[in-house]
Every structure is written in C-alpha cells, then in structure tokens.
Amino acid sequence: MNAYILSQIPILGAFAALLFFGAVLNSPRERLTHFLTIVGISGTAILMWLKLEVGSSYFGEAIRITSVGRVIAYLGLALCLVAVILSEDYLDKLRIRAVEWRMVVLAMALGIEHLALAGDLATLFIAFELVSIPSYVLAGFTPRDPRANEAGMKYLVLGTFASALFLLGIAFLYGATGQIHLAAIHESLSRSMAEGNAANLTLAKVSLALFAASLFFKVGVAPFHSWLPEVYLGSNYASLALIGGPAKIAVFGMLAMILWGPFQPLYETWKPMLLVGAACCAIIGNLQAIAQTQIKRLLAYSAVVNAGFILLALVTGGRDAIVLYLAAYGMTTMGAFAALMAFGTAHADVDELTDLLGLGRRHPFLATLFTLVLLSYAGIPLTAGFAAKFGVALEFFRPGAMFSQAAVVVLVLSLSTSLISFYYYFKIVRALWMKPESSLDQEITEPRNGRVSTVFALILCVVAVLALGLTMQVPGI
Amino acid sequence: MLAVPSDFLLLIVVIPFLAMVLHAFLPKNGKLQARAHTGISILWGLLVAWVGWLGLQMPEGLQLQWAHLALAGGSLDFAPKLILNGSNAVFVMLLGLAQIVVYGFLHDKEGRYGASYAISAHLLAGSLAGLFVCDSLLLFYLFWELALIGAYFWIGLHGRPSFFSGSVYGTLMRFVLITLAGSLPMLASIAAICAHDGRDPGLSDLASVVSDLSPVAQNWIFGGFLLGIAVKLPMLGLHGWLRDTYSVAAPACRAMLSGVMSKMGAFGLIFILAQGFPNQMYHYAPYLQIWAVLGVVYGAAICLAQDRLVDILAYSSISHLGLVALGVFCSVKTGITASTGYSGALLQVFNHGLIMAFLFSLDARVMKSEESPDIGLVSGLRSGQKRLAALLLVGIFASASLPGLSNFAGEILVYFAAFKSSPWLTFLAATGALIGAAALMRAFHKAFLGKRPMSVKPGYAQAGDLGVMETTLGIALIGLWLVIGLYPMSLIAPIEKSLVAIGLSGFGPSGLP
C-alpha cells in the first residue's frame, strides 16, 4: 500500500470511529473517544516516522516530504496530542459534547500535518482550510457563553476574508508561473528573475502580498492582530490550546516553507515585509500587553510579540533557529494553558490575574511549574524561550550573514522591547507568589481543578521546555 | 598545603541548588526550616571560603572542564568550564565569608520566614558561586540571570514596604527592569561573540575572539557588556534601583545584595571588560575614569543628606564601588604599573563586600523591628548595645579606610594607580571617600552617642545586645581586617601572581604605546 495512505489511516480511522460513536450512540463513552483520539494522532505520527522518508513525494508531488516539513508536522501533531491530553478533565467540566470536540481536533490535526507536507498549491489550500474551519468551530465551542459566540463569529468572518486572500494569492501565483507544484513555481520564479520578466514578477509580488496579508492575519502579526485578544478571551481553554498552539505553529511552519520554497527568489521583496511586521509586533504587542489584567488577553498579546520573533527567525532562514523557536513557543504556550486549566475551579476558569492570588502558597508544585513556563516566556536561561531567542540572535550575528543595518536594528528593537515583556510576565509571577498589596484583592479559596491528565500534560511541557533550553535544538532535524 | 581536587568547584556551586530541593521537601515547620537554612549556609560558606583560600594559594589555579557540546544544531560549540585562580578566588572567598557573617548575625530564631526564604537565598548564593567560578559566557549569563531571579523572589516574598521607598513590588520591579535593561544588551553582545566564532570562548579566551572583529563591532559589543556591568555595580546614573531596593529587602538579603551581588559587576568589569576588551578600555579609559570618580563623589555627598543608616550605607556603597571601578579604569591607562590598580580593585572588592555584609547585618540588629535606625529619631543607643556599638564603630572605621585596617590597603593601591593617570581625579576621589567616611561617623555619633530620649517612639524599641557567639564572630572578622591591613601582601602577592598569569598585569594592551 502507498506508504503515505498507510500513515494517514490511524487519524482517519479515529475520525470515522468518532463519527460513528457520535452519530449512532447517543452517549458515547468519553474515555473511549479520548483514547481513540490519542491513538489516531500518535499512530499517524509513528507511521510517518517509520514509513515516510525525506525526499519522497506522493500523488504527483501533491505531498512532498522535506526534512523541515516532517519535523514541523511532528511538532504540530505532538502539540495536538498534548492539547488532547490536557483537556480531558477540562471538557468534563465544561459539559460540552466532547466527542464532537475531538472530531474537530482530529480534522484539525490532519490539516496541521498537511500544511507542512503540501507539495502543491491545491493541497496547501485544502490543508489551510482544514486548519481554519475547525479553528472557527473551536473558538465558539462553548455555546452557552456569549463571549464564545462572539469570538467564533468574529473569527469566522475575518478568517474567511483571510482565506479568500489566500486563495487569491494562489490564483496570482498560478497566473505568474503557470505551475501548481511548489518546486516548479520556485524554478519558474528563479527563471523570471534571471530573465528579468517584469510582468511575471509583478504578478508574483502581488501574490506574495496577498499570501503575506492572509498569513499575517492568521498568525496574528501586528497590525493584523486585532482579532486575537477577542478570540482568545472568548474561547475556552481547551480550544485555545489548539488555536494558540499547534494551529499557529503549523501556519508559521507553512509560511517558512513557502517563503524559503517557491518565494525564495523574491527574498529581497519579502524580507522588508517581515522586518516591518516584526518591528510592529515588538512595539505594539509589548505596549498593549502592559495594561492587560485578563490573563487570556495578556497571552494573546504575548503571542503577538512572539510572532515578531518568529518572523525574525524566518528572515534569517536558519532552519534550526526557526524550528527551535516554533517548538519552544509551542511547548511554552501549551504549558501555560495547561497550568491555567489546572488552576481553574470546578465552576469557573482563571480569568483575571487576581484569580491566581495565593496559589504559590496553596499549590506550590503547580505554581512552580507555571513559573518555569513564565520564565521561558520571559527568556530566562535554561528554558526553551531563552534558547529560541538566543538562536535567532546567533543567526543574525553569524559571520557571512551580512544583514542590513535595518535588520539588525529590528533585532535589537525586539530584544530591547522584550524588557517590557518581563514586566507583564512577572505580573503573573507576582500574582502567584506574592502578597497582594491592596486589601481589595481577595484570594479565591475554592479548591482548584488540577487533575491528573492536566498536571501530567503540564509536567510534559515543562520537561520539554527545559530540555529544549538545555540542548538548544529540536531533535530530528 | 592541602591540594583541592577540582571537583570542589562543582561541589560549591551545586550544594545550594541541592539545598533548595531539600528545603522544598522539609516539613513546613518555620523553625526547622530556619535552622536548616542557617546551618547549611554557614557550613557551605566555610567550605566556599576554604576553597577560595586554597585557590588563592595555587599559582596555576584549578580547572574543571567538561566535554564539548554542540548546541543550536551544532552551530555553537560549548564547553562548560569552571576555574579558580588567585584573582577570582578573592570573589569566592568573599562569598563564603559573607555567608558566615550574614547568617551569623541574622539567623531567624523564631522561624518567621519559612521555606521560600531559604530557597530564594540559596538560589542567589548558588548563582553567585557559579558566576564567580565560571569560564564560559553562557554560564556567566545563566548565573547572572539566576541571581536576579533569586533576589527577585527573596525581596518580593520577604521584603517589607518602607515608608521611605513605597511598595515592595514597585521597588522590586524597578530593580528587575533596570537590571534587565543592562543585561539584555549584554545578551546581544554574548550572542554576537558566540556567533562570530561558532563557539563560546569563555572569559579567558574572549580577547582573542574580540580582536578578530571589526572595530565598529568591537565597540558595540563592548558597549553592551559595559551597560550590563555598570547597572549591576552600579555606576552613577544607573543606580536608580539601589537605595529603595536595599530599603525594602529583608536584612539578610540586603547584606548579600550589597556585600556580594554588587560584586558581580566588579567581576564583569575585571574579567570581561579589562580582560576581553583591552583596546576599548584603553581608548575609553579617560571618560570611564571620570564617570567612576563622579560616582565616588556623588555617592559620598548624598550620604550627608540621609537620615537612616541603611540609606547611608547604600549610597556609600556607590562611592566605594566607584573606587573599585576607578582602580580598574586607571590600570588600563598606566601601562607598567597596571597591576597596582587591579590588585587594589580586587582587594577593595573583598574588603568592601565583607564590610558591607557586616554593617548591614549589624544595622538590622539595632531595632527590634529590624528597621534601620533613623538618626533624627534615636540617640544614645550605645547604652543598651555596648558590644554592637563597639563592633559597628570598628566596621565604620574599616569602611572609612583607617590605616591598619584592610580597606586602607586596597584604597591606597587604587589611589596610587589613579595618581599615575590623573592627580586631579585622585584628589577628587579621595575627597569623596573622606566625605563618605564623615557621613558614616556622623550617623554613628548621632544614633549611638549622646543621651537616650525619655520616651521611645512606637516601632523604635531597641533590640538586645549581641550574644557571645556573635561578638566573637565580629571580633574574628576585625582580626581578619587587621591581618590584611597590617600585612596586605598576604592577599596581594597571590592576586598579583594570578593577574600576571591571566595577562592583566604589567603590560598595557598589545600593540599600543
């Protein structure tokens, strides 16, 4: 059997089984569906490891296995798996139909994996939609919460617009090159560059702008980020773990693959776009994050800031730096969501910073783990966050890299504005550990939710964060 | 003489981190935690001081190197390395002795603080130990930041708001942000150095990598390091965090911050800037000297306007550390007599650290509330605390560089070096030091001498006098100062030897007049 089809059987099988359970049985066993989801995702990951070799392609290059693509696909699947594990108890608490939630997650995992493996424009678009549409559903998955409805609707409307831009980008690119295979597009654009074919290049540049607008929106690069805090705020934590973790990582991975793949001849055109985006992220993201008191909004702005660093990594083109940043950011983010889920009470989620008051005293172990995650966000040595930022800086200063002054200025700007980020990450640390200075701030004394699966996922993330911080590289690349 | 196996270097770094784990698992009994903390800290301090002392005696020094690791996808060759030689042994010895002094005077008898206090204190101590013995830029940055995290939690969890400095958290955040504003440019410099050579050259090999870079790059990288180090020291203008942070920090924390943590800056000054950037130091020395002297004068002058002993000590610290910086900056300029300034600076590091640890500890023992005595509100304290007053007075004499005590030896070496460079600056610096000494004497005079007031204001109840053990510890420390003061060569000789070994002595930068 075709090795690629074989590798997809577990995830598709799990999807079919859940569909059956959901549609036929009225009250499917939660544990069984949970187990099936885990088996589906990890089965596909294992089969990909065993069967798919770097350099191979399937269905006339519709699927192409590259070394970076494979690592990003693994990373996406691993993050999905973590999200599934950590939300088991949380879904019980929300009292939503978990079987449907898991089906959506499986569909999304399929899209995430294919974003990194797509070899032509059609597969790319299908994968993109396969990630996007489940994201809209996930954002509004808590029907009783009006904020979730608003988030889902906003995300859907704006997201559809982004998808349309993406599609238009594909159309222009096809117009410019007459090709749909990414490798062929690269060749064609290189030729146009060499020949100075202005008409084709203009079309390709328009296409590049459309792609960039669409993807910048999708990953929340400033100034395309205004939807992000709203969607974060409205989504429940389980859905957020998917929207903010694996989905974002996969889209970034795809951005890396198309910029350094088909669009590589236009490097000089897209580099300034990325640099401007990175500078905007550093300034706008950090400044807006300062005043936040709601933790989800704060994390949303922190996502904007990190998006800026990822863009810088993309500019350098350092494979290791890009993958390391994606892995570090993914694991840190999942760790943060896991900790916040663990800190929710039986009836409510952690919403405001003040909800975390006194937890250092009452749950020192969980609070320590969360603090490590926050230190990773802040980029303290020994954590993944530090390794990632240091990796980007290393790429910039590498002899022979010859970055323009503007690029180095943006790097220094990003590094120095991360001083601001210390302020808001340490605000969370403060809420966890230190006594409130105002008597108006009362601790919540209700017991917290931290149950085995969430705490296990949190430990997993923290171990990954420390391992990445120590080795400064992602295994397998 | 006993030879120390080089594994001891690892041991002194690791023990505090293991102690952190121990405290996390000890029962939540305050007294037990406090006893364990004091015991471990003092024993570890003894070990560290002993290793430092032996390191001082070993001309070839100690080295502990691990296998090369390929980080960041093989693009960064990193070989973790710890070293101990005559020059960094001074820092190590200071750390050990400061621990003994601080916890000898400030043990938490009632067990008020609990595990978090011990954990953050150990984190700070372990990071300082790591920083002083590491020979790797990545490790240096790691310990630099970990020390900050330790201080953050120590102050944040156990600091007390002060009428004079406002809230703990506001002050703490200012401290953290100002420090980080210095260390982030330093990180960029470290990244640039590591990227250039594809390896972490460590502190000892920094100069060779730097000399390969273009002059513009060298200047930028030098600037990044200088900023990080100058904030930590702190140099004038970057000292905005100092007074309030000392004011809100718990007494032991304050003593460790001023006694040892500020020496991280001095360490960077000597082993990164002087050792790694001889050309930049040479080029910018005149400006840096002026900057240092302004700090000396400013710190001392502002002491005169302070009412609380703790604030006077804090500002006098700026002044004294300005002298350390002056010693280093002068050495670069003076060529053949270079070693005088460096050894003076190193000796000052040791003296100032111990004296500050001692004075800050005693300061917290005066009042029951551990608040610092306000010289406008108290007087005649000596009648209730004769031993404390006597020890404090000698401490102040030591800080004022009375001949015969150790500080004098260090300070005079710095002046010798500075005189070669600029007599005017030396004059200014000496005047500054004199003013600082006067401010401290004045504070002692007002608070401890004179009559006791008839009624004591609430919150100003005086604590009991020092016990026998504490007095003995104080006398032993004074004995040490006397030994060094009367026979300074006991420290200077090994320091000079190691300075020659690391190439910081006797010669100006290569290729320069």
Tell me what you see in this structure:
The complex is a heterodimer of chains A (477) and B (513). Chain A is mostly helical. Chain A has a two-stranded antiparallel ribbon. In chain A, strand 1 and strand 2 form a beta hairpin. Chain A is 76% helix and 1% strand. Helices cover 71% and strands 3% of the residues of chain B. A two-stranded antiparallel sheet of chain B has the order 1-4. A two-stranded antiparallel ribbon of chain B has the order 2-3. Chain B is globular, with a radius of gyration of 22 Å. In chain B, 63% of the residues are buried. The interface between A and B is large, with 37 and 36 residues.
Summarize it.
The complex is a heterodimer of chains A (477) and B (513). With 477 residues, chain A is mainly alpha-helical.
Strand content of chain B: under 5%
Q: Please report the total strand number of chain A as a whole number.
A: 2
- Strand segment tally of chain B: 4
- Overall pLDDT level of chain A: 90
How much strand content do the residues of chain A show?
A: under 5%
Task: Name the shape of chain B in a single word.
Answer: globular
Topology of helices and strands:
The complex is a heterodimer of chains A (about 475) and B (about 525).
Chain A: H1 3-24, H2 30-51, E1 57-58, E2 63-64, H3 67-86, H4 88-94, H5 98-117, H6 121-139, H7 146-177, H8 182-195, H9 198-219, H10 227-234, H11 237-260, H12 267-290, H13 295-316, H14 319-342, H15 359-362, H16 364-378, H17 384-397, H18 405-433, H19 452-471
Antiparallel strand pairs in A: 1-2
Helix pairs in contact in A: 1-2, 1-5, 2-3, 2-5, 3-5, 3-11, 3-14, 3-19, 5-6, 5-11, 6-7, 6-11, 7-8, 7-9, 7-10, 9-11, 9-12, 10-13, 11-13, 11-14, 12-13, 12-18, 13-14, 13-17, 13-18, 14-16, 14-17, 14-19, 16-18, 16-19, 17-19
Chain B: H1 7-25, H2 30-57, E1 62-65, E2 69-71, E3 76-78, E4 81-84, H3 86-105, H4 115-133, H5 137-158, H6 168-197, H7 206-212, H8 215-232, H9 242-248, H10 251-276, H11 278-303, H12 309-333, H13 338-366, H14 386-399, H15 406-421, H16 423-448, H17 468-486, H18 489-501
